Amino acid sequence: MTQHNKKHPGSAENALPQTRSLLFRTDTGLWLGAGLIALFVGMPIIALMVMAAQGDLTALTLLSKSVLPKASFTTFWLLAGLALFAGSIGAISAWLVSFFDFPGRKIFSWALMLPLAVPTYISAYTFTEFFTFTGPVQTLVRTLGGFSSSRDYWFPDIRSLPGAIFVLSLVLYPYVYLSVRALFFVQGRRAIEAGLLLGANQQRILTHILLPLARPALALGIILAMMEAINDIGAMEYLGVQTLTFSIFSIWVNQGDMAGSAQLALILLALVLVLIGGERWARRGQKFNETTNSSHMPFERMKLKGTKALIAMFLCLVPIILGFGVPLITLGAYARRYIFDGFDSRLIEAIGTSITLAGIAAIITLFLALLLSYAVRTKGTKPLNFLVRFSSVGYAMPGTIIALGIFLPIATFDNFVDGYMRDWFDISTGLLITGSGATLIYAYVVRFMAIAEGTIDAGFKKISPNLDSAARCFGHSRWQVLNQILLPLMRPALATAALLVFVESIKELSATLMLRPFGIETMSIYIHDLASRGRIEQAGIASLILILVSTIPVIILVRTSLRDR
Amino acid sequence: MNSVLKGVLMGACLIIPATGLAGEVNIYSYRQPELIAPLLDAFTQETGIETRVLNLKDGMVERLQAEGRNSPADVILTVDIGRLIGVKDGGVTQSVNSTSIAADIPEQFRDSEGHWFGLTMRARVVYASRERVAQDSISYADLADPEWAGRICTRSGQHSYNIALVASIIANEGEAVAEEWLTGLKANLARTPTGNDRAQAQAIYSGECDLALGNTYYVGLMRTNEKNPEQKDWEASMKVLFPDADGRGTHVNLSGMAMAAHAPHPENALALMEFLASAKAQEIYGELVYEYPLLKSAQPSDLVASFGTLNADTLPLEEIAALRGAASLLVDKVGFND
């Protein structure tokens, strides 16, 4: 059952006296390891700080008088709109498939994650095409209404702030859906049963039990979606929405002021930290843990009939059709035109490269995030908490900017080693790390640490620390506790984290574009190369394959770790 | 298990750094590899030198700087004068002394110190609705005239194509006039600046606007788009007007190239540069990308010639590039993209 704990009972004072000195050593190791990982992941941000400090404030001062106020508003409304829409879609659909039974529920429960496979840049493009003057929707409107010119009728423009909120919400809501559903999956049933037992009606259960229960998961999903929106430049540029990220690029690319650009990027990052901190502060002292593993308990979903079942189906179907169906249909139509051009061997190679790089990145990220989260769980001191938080906000930075923060220090290191080797041994080692695919993996780890860390942290929070304490009392070491007790319970969270990092790495474009060496081409690069002259339609087949490759792990995940019992 | 092993092996292969081979030239390119492939193939056939292309975008200069003397890049292939100047100012290029390039490329389109030279040019023209716009000539200044209120479309004011255009207006007429012009143009816009140049042609077709700013080569790209024939309709619904054709000339921008400061294969790089600057290659290149060759002796393709006669603004492009920062600030100042 859920319980509120103000104090963390799993600290070393519960350990048996004779093992204390040994434990202390392993704790220090854990702490140190976590600190090193945090530094490793946070290094690009530190590099950007160095960069920012090298410039003056000219660009920011000038911009604060022109576009910054407006861009701040735009960014604020974009995030607020996203929180509301992506939050509602994700939470409502998770609530429906978790607690009710209606036709198609099983299919919806995994299909609702599919939009995750669609990169925002592709979604922005396909939505514009779908709802544009020559697209199927407006053509239908014209045929039905007998119009000929766009001046004859009104149609909402997808290339606008509301349009951007719409497009982003439809591909980012799965973050909310995933985390809320995972929480309901583990805890919600028992909470509902308890509520029913105490005589609460459905509405009271929703507002007084489920919503407060879901809040941390809702917040996690929304924050991840917001960070993704903040780092986006491709989709926003295409939709003509001037966020602060847009200004980061115009300072850098058009005004040649890298330092000014880094300054603005860091300010944005600070805002994200405040956002996350604020959310945590708002639910300080609350802890919801599960004392027993109740997911094995039988649970009877409430059967919906008639109109109610139809409404539930409709609410689940619409986000899938829009978020996944529209891109699929639009790209499919383009792919059909190019399918007879034969299959490019470059594309097949790119698929292999993408899967390899994303797979390695997912494993490394998962491992590091697990260590970080576990360190926080066992030794949750404030500095460590902050360090972990700080290290994972790289996700809110535009990929190109974080790529700079990665490339500069590593290339400096490469050249340092090379210089040393030349001086002493007369051998040139060249660009040891930046000349290889390792930089890409590093970039994915840095960018997507937030997703893995957030998901794993949420997984840990669901397990009562009493369990750790009990095991520690029997003389198990921290590693044994992690390995034998926590990890088996954490399987769904770990699988989800690995999947998210894998899919995001496959979709990643901007950092890949900036960092890859000669001879490495990923699927996203292949699509970019075809599409960079404004011809995404040529990349239809490749985009479809990218979406497909990202979809398969989603389905595997749902069929194994998150399967309904 | 087998596939896992394969994945690991593949990963290991990826992590081994790529080393340079003789008989090759490495290209860092802002241009789509597919677009220049036929030219590079011709080069390999003629010289036996293999080419490798890395398509990069923002951050190329920073990357070259960080790579330093170990950079694998031999040549930099780019569009937009701002980027050509950018690579030179970033200190990642070297001066090339080639009599054949100097003889082939007009001085206006070369760096005075030999750091870069142009290959082809494109003009920033006005797309006009055939149906709703009667006139056959226009000036950039006209676009700010209230006559066109609510009838003009363009992509983002911060896009490098528009930044260069604004910079050329600052260079020609001063910052005050440019600001007034931008404010007037902003007031005439039918919608907030969005999409790419092609999307503006689509907006003319759909009736959303009557005039749009666009680059010349998009006209060729749309007209020949067999795979997406709807784009042929967009193109057919508009005509190309060359602004200021009778006056100072239409604003043009370049595609060009430079030799990387630490080129590991400088001889091969020079061979590629001289090849691309030759009349034959320029004509092929121009035809491939629907742009104008810079050589006086080379002719634009029939398709490009059909857009009309280009009378290019003779202002040195270095001057325009130097004003890009000012242009970008001006675009923000008048809230052009809002």
Helix content of chain B: 40-55%
Question: What is the mean predicted local confidence, pLDDT of chain A?
Answer: 81
Structural class call of chain B reads: alpha/beta
Strand content of chain B: 15-25%
Quickly count the domains of chain B: 2
What are the segments of chain A in which pLDDT stays under 50 over at least 5 consecutive residues? 1-25
Task: Examine the secondary-structure arrangement and name the CATH architecture of the largest domain in chain A.
Answer: Orthogonal Bundle
Rg from Cα of chain B: 21 Å
SSE layout and pairing:
The complex is a heterodimer of chains A (about 575) and B (about 350).
Chain A: H1 20-53, H2 58-65, H3 67-99, E1 100-101, H4 105-111, H5 120-131, H6 136-145, H7 161-197, H8 202-231, H9 234-239, H10 244-254, H11 258-282, E2 302-303, H12 306-338, H13 345-378, H14 382-392, H15 399-425, H16 438-461, H17 465-473, H18 478-489, H19 491-507, H20 510-515, H21 523-531, H22 540-560
Parallel strand pairs in A: 1-2
Chain B: H1 2-15, E1 24-29, H2 33-47, E2 50-55, H3 60-67, E3 75-79, H4 81-89, E4 93-94, H5 99-104, E5 116-129, E6 152-153, H6 160-173, H7 175-188, H8 197-206, E7 211-215, H9 216-223, H10 230-236, E8 238-241, E9 252-260, H11 266-277, H12 279-289, E10 292-293, H13 302-305, H14 317-322, H15 324-333
Parallel strand pairs in B: 1-2, 1-3, 6-7
Antiparallel strand pairs in B: 3-9, 4-9, 5-7, 5-8, 5-9, 5-10
Features:
heterodimer, A: 565 residues, mainly alpha, MetI-like fold, 2 domains, 22 helices, disordered N terminus, B: 338 residues, alpha/beta, D-Maltodextrin-Binding Protein, domain 2, 10-stranded mixed β-sheet
Tell me what the structure shows.
The complex is a heterodimer of chains A (565) and B (338). Chain A has 565 residues and is mainly α. Chain A has two domains: 258 residues, Orthogonal Bundle (MetI-like fold), CATH 1.10.3720; 262 residues, Orthogonal Bundle (MetI-like fold), CATH 1.10.3720. Chain A contains 22 helices and two strands. In chain A, helix 1 packs across helix 11. The longest helix of chain A is centred in the N-terminal third of the chain and has 37 residues. Chain A starts with 19 loop residues before the first helix and ends in a 5-residue tail after the last helix. The N terminus of chain A is likely disordered. Chain B has 338 residues and is α/β, with parallel strands linked by helices. Chain B has two domains: 151 residues, 3-Layer(aba) Sandwich (D-Maltodextrin-Binding Protein, domain 2); 150 residues, D-Maltodextrin-Binding Protein, domain 2 (3-Layer(aba) Sandwich). Chain B contains 15 helices and ten strands. In chain B, strands 1, 2, 3, 4, 5, 6, 7, 8, 9 and 10 form a ten-stranded mixed β-sheet that branches. In chain B, helix 2 links the parallel strand 1 and strand 2. The longest helix of chain B is centred in the N-terminal third of the chain and has 15 residues. The termini of chain B are far apart. The relative contact order of chain B is 0.19. At the A-B interface, helix 9, helix 10, helix 12, helix 13 and helix 15 of A face helix 1, helix 2, strand 2, helix 3 and helix 4 of B.
